[in-house]
Every structure is written in C-alpha cells, then in structure tokens.
Automatic annotation (TrEMBL):
InterPro entries membership: AAA+_ATPase, ABC_transporter-like_ATP-bd, ABC_transporter-like_CS, MacB-like_ATP-bd, P-loop_NTPase
Similarity comment text for this entry: Belongs to the ABC transporter superfamily.
Domain ABC transporter: 19-246
Protein name: ABC transporter ATP-binding protein
Gene3D superfamilies noted in UniProt: P-loop containing nucleotide triphosphate hydrolases (3.40.50.300)
Upper lineage: Bacteria, Bacillati, Actinomycetota, Actinomycetes, Bifidobacteriales
Length: 246
C-alpha cells in the first residue's frame, strides 16, 4: 500500500513492499520417517523499484526461499503476499493465472523451449494468456538485445549468453511486475553476466517494478539495492548496497 507520512515540511514516502513473507518454513522428508528443515520462520520483504539480492552458502535455503516467494514451491508454514494479494491459499489454476499476469522468471537454465524459435519463445507467455505477440514491440526488444537477426533461429543455435538475453527479453516484453531470478549470471562469462545485471537494473529504474534474485557472486550482490543473507534456513542479516561479503 502506498502511504505518505508527514515529516516536518516535507512528505516522506513509505516503501511499497510488493513481496512480503511471514514465518516461512519448509520441511521435506527425503526418506520415510526423516525430516529435513530447509527454511525456519523466515520473514522477508522486497520493495517496489528496488533490486533485492538473496545470498548465502550452498545449501542455506536461499533458492528454496526464492521459489516459495514466487509461488513455485509451497512452504510448509507461513504466508506470502505479492502485490498485496496473499498467494498462500490460492488454488493451482488461480495461482497459475496470477503468475502469468504479474510475474517473470529468469533462471540459470533459461526455461526456453528448445523446439521453438527465438520469436516463438517470446510469444509463449502471450499464447498462454490467449493473446497475440505484439510483433512491433518484439522486434524492438530483439533489436535492443542484439538478437533481431536470430529471431527465426532455434534457441539451440544460440550461445548461453544469447539464450539468457532471450529469457530476459521475454520477461521485459511480458511487462512483469515482479521478476524472480535464480543465479541469472551463473552460467555466463563476465561480460555477458554484466549485461544481464545491467538489464535487471534497468527494470527497477522506472520505479514500478521489483526484482528479487539469488546469487553467489559478490559483484552481482554489490549491484543490488538491498541484500539479505540466508544461513541455515534463517535470515542472518540485511545489508545495504556496497557492503556485501559472500
């Protein structure tokens, strides 16, 4: 909710938290009778117009946290609200519609359909919503990403960096309100990774989008407006930009 608070002669805007979680816990049973705790009572917020990074050692629960926030995994306990709507109790079809309308995903595996061309992958979110691909905007987006000559090529013919740019172009084209990214630069070289982060930064620059990403990279974390460290399934600490030790 957007609320302003009087402060002397000025007005101080209260942050708009588009991603909120309370008391998230996750237990799994890899073997009968055993129980493994991955998340333990996590509270989390991400602000509109900001890029929030989630860091921590391998196995700390940071990717599970991201997936629970995005509604891709169901937590054992706790609540998640996105854009002011609680998704915890949504049925599968309602949650799927909500994700298609409001969320974008950028993962290390790219989540592209290998049997489709670049353009067909861009069209997929629109097809799922029963809409047509806005071809002029798609051409502009591909041109921006330097992918216009490859629009009719299969994505299997592209390099890893090019495939990641296709995934980002799809997110931008679908105009997602919140973008969740899991190790978006993990499989890329330094130059391609820097371009990906530059694009994610451009998403939040307008002030009305939110990016939440998981990363192992201190260089990527330094580009975030806020960093949350997860250790042993708990939030260990919050850090401002430029003070990250991974």
């Amino acid at each position: 909710m957007n609320v302003n608070r009087e402060a002397g002669e000025g007005v101080v805007p209260v942050p708009i938290y588009t991603v909120e979680a309370q008391g998230l816990s996750m237990q799994v049973s890899p073997r009968r009778g055993d129980s493994l705790t991955i998340l333990q009572g996590v509270d989390f917020q991400a602000e509109q117009g900001r890029m929030t990074g989630i860091v921590g050692p391998s196995g700390s629960g940071k990717s599970t946290l991201l997936y629970c926030l995005a509604g891709l995994e169901k937590a054992s306990a706790g609540r998640v609200s996105l854009l002011g709507q609680e998704i915890t109790g949504m049925g599968l079809s309602q949650l799927t519609r909500f994700r298609r309308k409001h969320l974008g995903f950028v993962f290390q595996s790219y989540n592209l359909i290998s049997s489709m061309t670049v353009e067909e992958n861009l069209a997929l979110p629109f097809t799922l919503r029963g809409q047509r691909l806005p071809r002029e905007r798609a051409s502009q987006m591909l041109d921006y990403f330097g992918l216009l000559p490859q629009r009719k090529q299969s994505v299997t013919q592209l390099s890893g960096g090019e495939q990641q740019r296709v995934a980002l172009a799809r997110v931008l084209l679908s105009d997602a309100d919140i973008v969740f990214a899991d190790e978006p630069t993990g499989a890329l070289d330094q130059e391609a990774g820097a371009k990906v982060i530059e694009i994610l930064r451009s998403l939040v620059a307008g002030g009305n989008k939110t990016v939440v990403l998981v990363t192992h990279s201190s260089q990527v974390a330094d580009q975030c407006d806020r960093v949350v460290e997860v250790v042993d399934g708990r939030i260990a600490q919050h850090r401002p930009q430029g003070k990250v030790l991974v």
